[in-house]
Design goal:
Blueprint (H helix, E strand, L loop, with lengths): L2 H18 L15 H4 L7 E4 L7 H14 L2 E5 L11 H6 L2 H10 L4 E5 L8 E5 L2
Parallel strand pairs: 1-2
Antiparallel strand pairs: 2-4, 3-4
Amino acid sequence: YDDKNARNSLVLKAAFEWLDNQSYDFRCIQASFADLPSLDLGRFDVVTALCALYYLSEQEMRDLVAYIRSITDVLVLQCNTDRLIDRSSEETFRKASIEFAIEILEQARFAKIEVIAPSGYSRPLVIGSTP
């Protein structure tokens, strides 16, 4: 169990609770995103994947986003467009791109796709939703 990431998740939880002025049922689970379908966690209002999914294989990403579509109406993917970081694989850059995020959200049949990409920011969000 990674204590640093657990602490970071609690900070994020506290920020959302402060913004929304309410408490959220929350727990940390240490697992690969690829394991999500086998965890049987139920349905979610929103699923977020912050700079994480593109470390899976392309097929695992496609399968996982399709599964996530079955458990939520909103998926927030954070991309990484920074070409100056050291990556061992050019394929990871492609999977971390806005274009690929849009492609897999469309494939999973999210009806609305929104991109939030402020100028100069290398971690844009691509949000898929279905009313």
